[in-house]
Specification:
This protein has 532 residues and is an alpha/beta fold. It contains 16 helices and 19 strands.
């Protein structure tokens, strides 16, 4: 009789989602997937688990049916979910929270609501009740309650929780109409990036007596990143499983000797990784203890399979890089996708053969969802995978209209400030273009001659300036000359009369205008001070 299986899908962002997809592919090709009776999932594991159970008939059907269902997951991890969420959240703040005024509270552009909206498109707005069917396994999406410090979960019937950390009595409330996207968002709300998601009596449509206080839920990996805790609890109360298989996409936890952890996000990510790694180590130690029942098999991403003659395996350098791939919800490349799926499949095959769950006749990896397997095995791809650990901000995407809206909001104040700085020059230009021509000369030295050979310009008044200078007007007109200052309004003001052959020195400013006339009022020249 085939073993009845409990499948645990660990956390780890899209890295975990894709690694688990490879493990699930192997279970399907070897006929083991249909024997899975319960699934426990965390974070990135929950993303796949919900889709897996929703499309159970396709995933347990032929390879063609499996491919059709899995393509939705492959396309989803190429959409840069984290970037789309952050960009929309930033747009809401730049717009002074305008979306908060125009939308219902449940649709506000908060980070968690935006994350739910992205998941809603993947699950086509299905509810927990849509996970029910006699031929489908029970599935549990783990969350951590920051309110009580204990593990909570969503299942196909509703919400389960404990009142206190040391209370073994689990409570539950039926809420089958809760959106799957809400449950998965609560399970994958990674603390450094996403605030906790509130579950209240209003959320569950219950009275306060049944659900007296709100639970603020964060990533289930804070409590159990392996995804095995609830399966173990059910096995103690209802022993119906013969085998636990844990697909563990938790990577290396290396020392970071060169980092001083000054940046708040990096510091919080490091602390969360440390906590999750420690909790998982304790769980694995307990589950692999002698006499443990049922049998526990762990498929780990840190496994390295060295068989140079096997064309279905990735190069060892690529395998080692995958364990360090970022645990994120940003866009994964085609190379990263195929490599993680292939590695999950191959690790599961080797582990289950060694555990005598499968035989050597189990098929090697042959699935090529993106038709790029030969490229993924190349040395260039190996070098690309080496960079897969780098987290990118992804604040810009040419395919997302929100990026252009954000760019406009950033440029608008800069353009406005530049416009204000340009106004004085614009005003001067407008005066020159709109006024009546006058015969003027530009004073580029500290001495001007009366009369002048003038040129035509378009300035009718003095312009504001703070640059003082003295100018000497020397009268060579052969007659007396009257010297006028043209004020800021364009009105002439007599300053002095210069006898023929004499000179007069005046204090003035750059861009001020002066005019010399005969005593009969005929113009002898108009001057604009330009400085030295």
């Amino acid at each position: 009789m085939p073993p009845r299986i409990g499948l645990a899908l660990s956390g780890g962002g899209f890295r975990a989602t894709l690694f688990h997809l490879g493990v699930v592919r192997l279970l399907n090709e070897t006929g083991q997937l249909s024997q899975v009776k319960r699934i426990g999932a965390v974070s990135g594991g929950s993303i796949l688990a919900a889709h897996l159970v929703l499309h159970w008939k396709q995933y347990t059907g032929s390879n063609e049916d499996f491919d059709k269902a899995a393509q939705e997951i492959v396309q989803f991890v190429q959409k840069d979910i984290r970037g789309r969420v952050i960009r929309r959240w930033m747009l809401a703040w730049f717009c002074l929270a305008l979306p908060r005024l125009l939308m219902r509270r449940s649709r506000h552009w908060t980070r968690t609501n935006l994350l739910q909206a992205q998941y809603g498109r993947l699950y086509k707005d299905k509810a927990l009740k849509d996970l029910r069917a006699s031929d489908r396994p029970h599935v549990y999406f783990y969350c951590t309650s920051l309110t009580t410090g204990v593990l909570c979960s969503f299942g196909r019937s509703g919400f389960r929780w404990h009142d206190t950390y040391d209370n073994p009595q689990e409570r539950s409330i039926a809420a089958p109409n809760t959106p799957i996207a809400f449950a998965v968002a609560a399970s994958s709300a990674f603390p450094p990036l996403f605030p906790p998601i509130e579950v209240s009596n209003e959320t569950l449509f219950s009275d306060r007596e049944t659900f007296p206080y709100s639970h603020y839920l964060t990533d289930g990996g804070v409590y159990d990143n392996l995804g095995i805790d609830k399966l173990s609890w059910f096995q103690k109360t209802t022993p119906e499983l013969d085998l636990f298989i844990a697909s563990d996409a938790q990577g290396n936890f290396d020392s970071e000797l060169d980092s001083r952890f000054k940046f708040i996000v990096g510091r919080n990510v490091r602390a969360s990784d440390l906590l999750m790694t420690r909790v998982s180590s304790m769980q694995i130690e307990r589950l692999t203890a002698p006499g443990q029942s049922p049998r526990f098999v762990r498929v780990g991403i840190r496994m390295e399979i060295d068989n140079p003659g096997d064309p279905t395996l990735l190069p060892p350098e690529s395998q080692r890089s995958l364990r360090n791939t970022r645990t994120d919800l940003d866009k994964f490349s085609a190379t990263e996708i195929t490599a993680l799926i292939a590695h999950g499949y191959s690790c599961a095959r080797k582990t289950l053969i060694e555990a005598n769950v499968l035989t050597e006749s189990a098929p090697p990896f042959s699935w090529d969802p993106l038709r790029n397997w030969q490229i993924v095995k190349s040395w260039n791809a190996t070098r690309q995978l080496r960079q897969s650990c780098i987290r990118r901000w992804r604040l810009w995407s040419s395919r997302d209209w929100v990026s252009y809206a954000l760019l406009g909001l950033v440029l608008a104040p800069l353009i406005y400030v530049g416009y204000l700085a340009y106004l004085p020059f614009k005003a001067a230009q407008a005066i020159r273009q709109a006024s009546v021509p006058r015969l003027v000369t530009s004073i580029k030295h500290e001495e001007a001659t009366i009369p002048i050979d003038s040129k035509t310009v378009y300035q009718t008044e003095s312009l504001t300036s703070f640059h003082r200078m003295n100018v000497t007007f020397r009268n060579k007109a052969g007659q007396n000359a009257e010297l006028y200052w043209i004020d800021l309004d364009g009105s002439p003001k007599l300053i002095t009369t210069i006898q023929s052959g004499d000179a007069a020195t005046v204090e003035t400013f750059v861009w001020h205008m002066w005019e010399a006339t005969t005593q009969d009022g005929d113009s002898l020249g108009t001057y604009v001070v330009e400085g030295k």
